[in-house]
Amino acid sequence: HREAQVFSTFQQAETENARTPPTVPPARVRTMAEWEEVQALVLSWAGYWDVLTEIVRFAVDECDVYILTPDRIATETHLLLAGISLERVHLLPIGFNSIWMRDYGPWAVYHQYVDSLAIADYLYNRPDRTDDDLVPHELADHLGLPLYNADDTPYRWIHAGGNFLRDGLGTAWSSDLVLKENTGKSGLDLAEYARLFFGIEDYRILPRLPYDRIHHLDMHMRVLDEETIAIGQYPAGVADGPQIEANLRWLQQHYRTPYGNPYHILRLPVPAQNGRYPPQSDYLTYSNALFVNSTLLVPVYGHPLDSVALQIYRDYLPGYRVVGINCNSIIEAVGALHCVAKVVGVANPLYLAHARLRDTYNTAQPYQVRAQVHYRHGVSEVNLYYRTDSMAPYQRIPMTPIGAHNWHADIPPQTVGTEVQYYLEARALDGKVRRRPLPAPEGYYRFRVKAYHASPQAKWYQSLYYLAPGTSLQLFADIAEGATSYEWTLAGGNPAEAHTAAVEVSYPEPGIYPIRLQVSNPLGVGEDLRDEAVRVLPSRGLFHDEFTDDPAAAFWWVDNSEAPTSGWVWTASDYCYGGHWQVRHTQAAKPLERAHLRTAVDLRNLESATLNFSIAHAADTTYQRMDELRVHLTTADGQILNIYNKGGLALKTHPTQDTSYMPTTCTEWRRETIDLRPWLGQQIVLHFEAIGGQGNTLFLDDISLTTNKLPEVMILNPVDDTLIIAATDQPVPINLSLLADDADGEVEAVEVYVNEELVHSFLAPPYLFTYTLPGFGRYCIQARVRDNEGATNWSATHCLHYVEETVGTFTPIYQAYGRLFPNPVGEELHFQWNHPQPVPGIVATLYDARGREWRRTTWQLRSGQVYT
Q1: Does domain 460-536 have CATH number 3.40.50.150?
Q2: Which residues pair with 266 in a beta bridge?
């Protein structure tokens, strides 16, 4: 509770205990997945010894175990009395504050997939646990590994490991706790941190659950492999069940695996505690499981559902040692096995990624197996082993390389009812061998060849409901009974019909559109028609809405389905702007009610675009009651991006907490602006999301889209391709003159660059400057102008060519004299020749500044005369 009280201040402060300035990886890194090969498990010996002892008991069979402990002798004695060998146990005198190693411990990352191991880190989201936050630094020193730390300006990322699930292929998942804890930073900012420090290319954020007090995804969600996610399942309508199901629908609608497939979802039951569920009980979970090489440790509670959960894991992960560890003692602290441990990958991994084959109705075509293999010392061969009888030996099929790291092979087609079991094996040039799944050949992947048993039920997921004209919408058929044909009818769409399981469609005009899907298999036909499947919002360009009148029928769409008692309401008033929007968070029936307000805007044919809006809020800065406001943007290709994120102290405009607060003067509103230039040329949807902590009313008004015409700058002198000639290589001054203007504002600064290096800055006209060319060479000049709104623009590039004078080429019997003028050369160049004797014929060739022949001429030179 004390940490919650100080967290708002912690969010705004600089990091006091940062050991070193942030160090960004020098090249792309990859964060390992938890099912990869590990060299060590890391724990902190901080109470709950019954749980920690059992983790160590099973982990020492798989890898080394590093235990942070303040009392080496006591820890050794405890483990020995428990019958655990200390051969692979390493006790380290590193300080810590808590048991939750998952949240603050080291992250194993690899340069370029597998080249070298390093440690990545962020700022732990518990401000009072400063020793915990330094553990990755200490362990990196102990292991002799480089550390990349996003824990201070300009990469100050507050986070916790239980809320950071990865797949090893550049995808990561968090609840939107990560946005709340990093208020003032947008989702785009956090995605950039994840990319730089962890190699995450696709950072996916889900709404947090109302009754999970810590809001860490690992309390109800578990990534099991590249395409499989295990998710907890409550009885219908109970506890966090409704939000989990909503998140699952969102996941299925919006996200695909790294291989472009729908995720395979494995449901885990959630046990009650003495017949009760949260918030009237502890947060029991089976998803908080821990991979340690070929072992999976699962929390259990002495509940009848324990055996069900263990069997679900065993069925999906044959060959793994799946072990239950009683967690009744620790679950009251809102954590279990995954929460208390971190793994460190091997130093030299042979990385093998694979999208496991799924059940199929195909009996005619081979089953394509694909694998991605990386090893720093090279791969010699990759083999596929399969069998159709669990008592029979595996058959080997050599896999064929495709490019640098991809391999493929085909399993022959099988008859209905066959279960195919298979695994992959990679061999490196230095002899190392790696298999997937890790415990193969005892472990294996499997799929079944199924018979059609019913006519198909038409069902699909769609990535969006609210669209701007022209936005790409993804449709994905999900047919449990199997389908042999698909027929989409997309009235008003482009295309208007389609015949594949996955479809991309867009709608050029505003309106509400139906979608129809008809599917068939040998046993029949199924159909689903949704009359209002898509709403395409009318978009507009520049606008200024003061909401003096009720805007409900205009360009704004309200969705208060998740906040029926507290959502967006237009209110007429005499305050400042007149009417305004408000969200009455004090009236929310439960925490985390979400209200949505949308409009579509047209950024085509604009040189720049800025979203402006005014807010007023007397924030309740109690951490649990912080209200939040976010602005999301849906791009033309269907991506949903968070571009504004504030809550608590960052959101408040009124100095004191006041549940009856109403802004009565214009000075009580704060103006916010968002640069929309990255999305110029598109029609987009803007989405204001208000998230309630049951704090105070949020006010929103005076929303506008404005454009700032780009300032202009041009180089008047020298002209492009100016040629300067000198007999000797020496500095020569040149005079530069520029012209800058801003049609709708003021020029704030002009900068001059020579060969991309800044050489001079102007804060006011006249823009005149003398630059000295240091010697022969090519000099390209460009100017950049910035206006009073921060917009910048570049001039055309003008290049100078400063060269040595080389005039005339004659046979040795002639001594001719010549000169060139003017110097420097402008638009005209004069050649002047003279010779004491007549010369019968001179050939003169003129080249331009780029060395291209421009003109050639021949003439007679008489004695003693000068020719120009």
Answers
A1: no
A2: 230
